[in-house]
Specification:
By secondary structure, this protein is α/β, with parallel strands linked by helices. It has one domain (about 10-120): Nucleotidyltransferase, domain 5, CATH 3.30.420. The chain is about 40% helix and about 30% strand. Strands 1, 2, 3, 4, 5 and 6 form a 6-stranded mixed β-sheet that branches. Helix 1 (about 45-60) packs parallel to helix 3.
């Protein structure tokens, strides 16, 4: 059984594709450990960023986290998830449905150089 955590946990998320559009992959970094998903089909960078945000929520749920700070570098996806920018209704609905399973979910935007998930994706790409 997973240990329950009550303190806020930071989860970094990032998605990308090469080329754009192209093959998508995501990374989520939770408690210093990078979790990757590859072979997610073809799509755009924004498609991949959305998959990464959902990946972060699913990862948190699998670890019984309750208080989340989701950190990413896609301002567009963060604004859509917050409801302050129009976006794909299905993605937003999926995000909201997953987020309801947590006591608290906050979204934060950081620059690319500060996104630990983006850094992990870049390192993984160089290592392949």
């Amino acid at each position: 059984m997973n240990e329950k955590h009550d303190a806020p946990v930071k989860i970094y998320f990032d998605g990308g594709c090469r080329p754009n559009p192209g093959a998508m992959e995501t990374a989520a970094v939770l408690r210093g450990v990078a979790h990757f998903r590859r072979d997610l089909g073809d799509g755009s960078n924004e498609d991949a960023e959305w998959l990464a945000l959902l990946h972060a929520l699913e990862l948190a749920a699998s670890r019984d986290e309750t208080d989340l700070i989701l950190i990413g570098d896609s301002l567009s996806v963060i604004r859509q998830a917050r409801g302050v920018q129009r976006g794909d209704c299905d993605r937003i609905a999926r995000y909201r449905a997953l987020a309801r399973g947590f006591a608290r979910v906050r979204l934060r935007h950081v620059g690319r150089s500060q996104n630990l998930a983006g850094i992990a994706l870049d390192k993984a790409r160089r290592g392949r």
